[in-house]
């Protein structure tokens, strides 16, 4: 079995490092130490910390998109069930992390948008992809009469993602599932009601 490349080790480890420590809290020294590689390896594979963060965001997005594909885009289930399945899947991960880390996309959105135009514009693209998955599920629910149709699906998707990110931010502060549970109760009783 082939050994993973040093670049791959840095990226894989970097997802965890940036998620736990934040962009500003993780220097190249911490990133390479966490990956178990020499510090010089970083500059062999990434031209800057910003370029590295773009790669890490892409890897995180791939994983998030896989969850969305298995839940939000599962056409064999009713749309409301898809949405519940997505939030259930993410809540399991959040619980396993002790309600501490939230979403890397949301964390970086709060942290880096004033310091890095490259990361800000990349976060726009990543957030658009996330929003699109929610919008697809909402449209399916509207078409089936499961979800109210008096609001635009794209607007609802933006609202869902923004509210979800806010609930995860509060969850991190409280280190409790309560904000996530409150978000879900209100979302399904109002915005996603039929």
UniProtKB/TrEMBL annotation:
This is TetR family transcriptional regulator. The keyword Amino-acid biosynthesis does not apply. Residues 27-46 bind DNA. Keywords: DNA-binding, Transcription, Transcription regulation. The lineage of its organism: Bacteria, Pseudomonadati, Pseudomonadota, Alphaproteobacteria, Hyphomicrobiales. It comes from the Bacteria. The keyword Ion transport does not apply. It comes from Propylenella binzhouense. One of its GO terms (molecular function) is DNA binding. Residues 4-64 form the HTH tetR-type domain. InterPro entries: Homeodomain-like_sf (IPR009057), HTH_TetR (IPR001647), Tet_transcr_reg_TetR-rel_C_sf (IPR036271), TetR_C (IPR011075).
């Amino acid at each position: 079995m082939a050994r993973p490349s040093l670049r791959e080790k840095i990226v894989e480890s970097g997802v965890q490092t940036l998620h736990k420590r934040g962009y500003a809290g993780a220097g190249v020294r911490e990133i390479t130490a966490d990956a178990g590689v020499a510090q010089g390896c970083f500059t062999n594979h990434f031209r800057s910390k910003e370029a590295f963060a773009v790669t890490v965001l892409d890897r995180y997005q791939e994983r998030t998109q896989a969850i969305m594909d298995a839940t939000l885009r599962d056409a064999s289930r009713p749309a409301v069930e898809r949405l519940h399945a997505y939030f259930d899947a993410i809540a399991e991960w959040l619980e396993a992390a002790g309600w501490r880390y939230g979403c890397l996309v949301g964390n970086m959105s709060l942290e880096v948008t004033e310091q890095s135009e490259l990361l800000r514009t990349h976060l726009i693209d990543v957030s658009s992809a996330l929003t699109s998955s929610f919008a697809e599920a909402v449209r399916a629910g509207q078409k089936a009469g499961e979800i109210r149709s008096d609001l635009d699906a794209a607007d609802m998707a933006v609202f869902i993602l923004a509210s979800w990110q806010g609930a995860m931010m509060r969850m991190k502060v409280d280190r409790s599932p309560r904000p996530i549970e409150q978000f879900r109760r209100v979302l399904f009783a109002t915005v996603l009601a039929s």
